[in-house]
Write a structure and sequence with these properties.
This protein is of the alpha/beta class. Helix content is about 60%, strand content about 10%. It is built from 15 helices and 5 strands. The radius of gyration is 21 Å and the shape is globular.
Length: about 290
Amino acid sequence: MADSQHIFNSTDKSFPDDVIQKSEDTTVLVDFWAPWCGPCRMLAPILEQLADHFEGNLLIAKVNTDENPALAQHFGIRGIPALKVISGREVVYETTGVQSVAVLIEALSPFINTAESEKASENSEIDESIENSFKPAERIAELEAALEQNPDDENMNLELISTYLINNQTDAAYARLLTLPINVTETEHGQKVKVLVDFYRAKQHAPDYDALSNELIKDPNNHAARYQTGVHKLLEGSQQAALQDFLYIFETAPDFEDGLGRKALLAAFTITDDDNLIKTYRRKMASLLH
């Protein structure tokens, strides 16, 4: 988390006091994230710039969805990073994915004290390319150097693998994963990173999305193309659409590639942050089995 005094962690327990109550006086942006989420780390420096820009007239609360599932469920979080802006105890704006600081400033300004917001605009230089301030290659170098001194650090190893994926170094991520002991890869965090690596490897060897869409137009029962399409959707944040593709394979060709549809669904559940969505598709799987 950033050193900014305007950015803080919030939990299921503390949320009513440090977000809802504070929103009566100051607008609060809630960032739903998870440690295994690459785009979440890309968004982090953008939020730091946002906090600096509004100079205390915007608070940013970070909610780890892995550790605070009740909040994620309450707000209907279907993909991360997800942002909810709360003012006067109500959600007044929301968005998902990585947005530039310029886009977020424009979107949030109507909910910030006008006079103070204008003052902040005069005193702050907006860097419209702030999304580039997270440099995966630099972070990889930092982590690799740190791991030379402490090679068994679980969190740094898993972060390095995730950052390799962000930097399109799928082979490096897979190679690093193979070096980790089972007591790391079988943790909840380790399982999520392992699943991400598997899906990124599948995407690495798949045609692009448009080519796959054309294949499915020609033959809706091209299960290999449908699986690869689902992988694209999942990694781009369209979790429900991906689950629907995997379910279609499970329903129409349960034995395809040794049960690929079922395996893909179960793997996708691991990195899907919407409990209701998981329950829905587990029920659909169960109904097909019976």
